[in-house]
Design a protein that fits this description.
Radius of gyration: 16 Å
Strand order of the largest sheet: 1-4-5-10-9-8-7-6-3-2
Strand content: 35-45%
Order of helices and strands: HHEEEEEHEEEEEH
Oligomer: single chain
Helix content: 10-25%
Number of strands: 10
Structural class: alpha+beta
Largest sheet: 10 strands, mixed
């Protein structure tokens, strides 16, 4: 069965909310990441860091749209609705979408470059906050509905300044049809950068695999970021 969930982070990617205050372990060497001061440099770095389909697995292909770029991202408003907003103090953002060729898995990865490290940490904090008040969420202008949105711990992920991780259940797709898709979404900061990875599959028994894939994706992105 294919995955019917809507994927969203920029104009249409995946949404960003995740784990608790103790989810990440601060890096001992934050200077390992590059320093970026222009939108062009931020975009070039993101193209090297964000994952391609083959990074997810040999049977993955590009999803459409493959890349979302710019300075708009999704946030959860006071009514627990996911909306798109301008990124304050950001140089640029890039999100790439991939999927299994048979549509059974959706995945994406993203890198946002801020002018300052405290803005990156604020982004993570803003993704964390709705987890404490919005176990159910919808999407502005869509019929999609998500339930049982909750925090998870990912103790194996090291080296980030801050980290939040969430899982949830998509029960209604954008067309208003019932669905049974489960996702894991990780958001972390490292210096002036925000890194995200998400994975979605059908059926609750897939969550452990989703989590493993998302952790591996974020770890690979961090290693590329530290390599410049």
């Amino acid at each position: 069965m294919g995955v019917a969930v809507v994927v969203i982070v920029t104009a249409l990617g995946f949404f960003a909310f995740i784990s608790g205050d103790d989810g990440g372990e601060p890096s001992d060497n934050p200077s390992k990441v590059p320093s970026v001061s222009s939108s062009t440099a931020a975009r070039n770095l993101a193209k090297r860091v964000a994952l391609t389909p083959k990074d997810w697995g040999s049977t993955f292909v590009r999803n459409s749209p493959y890349e979302n770029t710019g300075r708009y991202w999704t946030f959860v408003d006071q009514d627990c609705i996911i909306t798109s907003e301008s990124l304050t103090d950001a140089l640029d953002g890039l999100l790439r979408n991939a999927k299994e060729s048979d549509d059974t898995v959706l995945s994406n990865s993203a890198l946002i470059t801020y002018k300052r490290a405290d803005s990156a940490k604020s982004f993570v904090a803003r993704q964390r906050e709705p987890l404490r008040r919005c176990p159910k969420q919808g999407i502005a202008g869509s019929n999609a509905q998500y339930e049982n949105i909750h925090e998870v711990k990912v103790p194996d992920l090291k080296g980030f300044d801050d980290l939040v991780a969430a899982e949830g259940h998509a029960t209604v797709d954008s067309d208003g049809q019932k669905t049974d898709d489960y996702y894991t979404l990780l958001t972390a900061s490292k210096g002036q950068f925000v890194l995200q990875a998400s994975v979605t599959r059908n059926g609750s028994e897939t969550q452990e695999t989703n989590r493993d894939d998302a952790v591996n994706a974020l770890s690979l992105m961090l290693s590329r970021l530290e390599s410049g």
